[in-house]
Design a protein that fits this description.
The chain is an alpha/beta fold. The protein has two domains: 130 residues, Alpha-Beta Complex (Aspartate Aminotransferase, domain 1); 248 residues, 3-Layer(aba) Sandwich (Aspartate Aminotransferase, domain 2). The chain contains 13 helices and 14 strands. It starts with 12 loop residues before the first strand and ends in a 9-residue tail after the last helix. Bound molecules: pyridoxal-5'-phosphate. The site of pyridoxal-5'-phosphate (PLP) has 12 residues, from α3.
Length: 404
């Protein structure tokens, strides 16, 4: 049972890679009264929101908003565009890619799951040339969609989506490109239109700094065309009725009104700061955290420095150390939540989230909690990661620092 007496003093450090901490500004915006979702004020909010949200996806096309977690938006992407028995080429980058593949199978699709052998797939980004090679073999064009995860939250590895687009184009294959950027959006550079993505899937509780509960599909014209012919059953998730109602700023059913207030505030914050500044802030935090992990002498899950995630870092435990025991000790003693190892990585690593509403000092506190917990768990550390990160953060000013 949930222990409601557990209210330690001070703020909890929610350093999992989603849900990420929700800024007070957003919590306040969400506390406003729920209004009539068919009334004129709501319509005005809806129209403004649906227009503004496209900037974060970098698209001129429509973005559908669902009152659902990211998993719902995964399902929406597949069932709006595909028909029973369709082949789908999916790439194994980690646990989330694996779950999406399982969903495709349950929906009656035929996913083909490719990736690097053994554990390597979970330590590198998508290898676009493997997708290219597979599409070249598909001379009958049976593959209807290519599905990849942009920021694999289970490992801390991003993938080069532009390279996947180039690989598909090089073959002239007509498959749709679907990308999960549930944990990448608004933290890592993402460009729906420029990268020629047909459906982008995202969620609220990671880079957008909102509570869980809304999710997104950004659509290309080609995806909308595909949805007119696709035969998997769909009703709640169907784009056509939502797009129709959205024209006037409404939804066919009751939308998540207060989360939409929060989304409006989140978009104001992100767009005022400027997306490039937001991305630079995440890259810098990620670099500081990696300095700490390297100083400890521990391994980073991602093996390719070109695709280190700006959102989170996976810290691999030495042989014989159970990462979950370390993580639980840190939670109990220091009121700090870290991400657990998922799927194949269970017990082998923990994940440090460095996304959204953080700053240098929340990350220093996080690293201190990690360093104390690792030492208390008997993990031998080569040197102080805390000192290494302090050095990094003090020597590398953020791009928007107001003074020297
Ligand atoms: C969080 C996450 C999901 C799952 O989203 P839910 O909101 O938990 O349904 C899927 N993919 C990735 C990459 C994620 O980070």
């Amino acid at each position: 049972m949930l222990n409601l007496d557990f209210h330690p003093s001070g703020r909890h450090f929610l350093q999992i890679p989603g849900p990420s901490p929700v800024p007070d500004r957003i919590l306040r915006a969400m506390s406003l009264p729920t209004i009539d979702h068919r009334g004129p004020e709501f319509g005005a909010l809806g129209r403004e929101l649906l227009d503004k949200v496209r900037q974060v996806f970098k698209t001129q096309g429509p973005v559908v908003i669902y009152p659902a977690s990211g998993t719902g938006a995964w399902e929406a992407a597949l069932i709006n565009t595909l028909s029973p028995g369709d082949s789908v080429l999916m790439y194994e980058t980690g646990h989330f890619a694996t779950l999406w593949q399982k969903m495709a199978r349950r929906l009656g699709l035929e996913p083909e799951f490719i990736g690097l052998p053994g554990d390597e797939g979970w330590r590198h980004g998508v290898q676009a040339e493997m997708i290219e090679a597979r599409l070249r073999e598909d001379s009958e064009q049976r593959i209807k969609a290519v599905c990849v995860v942009h920021n694999e939250t289970s490992t801390g590895v991003t993938s080069d989506i532009a390279a996947v687009r180039r690989a598909i184009d090089a073959t002239g294959h007509p498959a749709l490109l679907m990308v999960d950027t549930i944990s990448g959006l608004a933290s890592a550079d993402y460009r729906h239109d420029e990268w020629g993505v047909d459906v982008t899937i995202s969620g609220s509780q990671k880079g957008l700094m909102l509570p869980p509960g809304i999710s997104f599909n950004a659509l290309s014209d080609k995806a909308i065309d595909a949805s007119r012919k696709a035969e998997l059953p769909k009703s709640f998730w169907a784009w056509d009725e939502i797009l129709e109602a959205n024209r006037n700023g409404y939804w066919p059913y009751t939308p998540n009104t207060n989360l939409l207030y929060g989304l409006d505030e989140s978009l104001n914050m992100l767009l005022t700061e400027g997306l490039d500044n937001v991305f630079a802030r995440h890259q810098r935090w990620a670099a500081g955290v990696r300095e700490a992990v390297k100083a400890w002498g521990l391994e980073i899950q991602c093996q390719d420095p070109a695709v280190y995630s700006p959102v989170l870092t996976g810290v691999v435990m030495p042989e014989g150390v159970d990462a979950d025991t370390v993580r639980q000790l840190i939670y109990r003693r220091f009121d700090l939540s870290l991400g657990m190892g998922l799927g194949k990585a269970k017990g082998r690593m923990f994940r440090i989230g460095h996304l959204g509403d953080c700053n240098d000092l929340t990350l220093m506190a996080t690293l201190s909690g990690c360093e104390m917990g690792l030492t208390m768990s008997g993990v031998p550390l080569a040197s102080s990661g805390v000192e290494a990160a302090m050095r990094y953060f003090s020597e590398h000013a953020p791009a928007h620092a107001s003074d020297a």
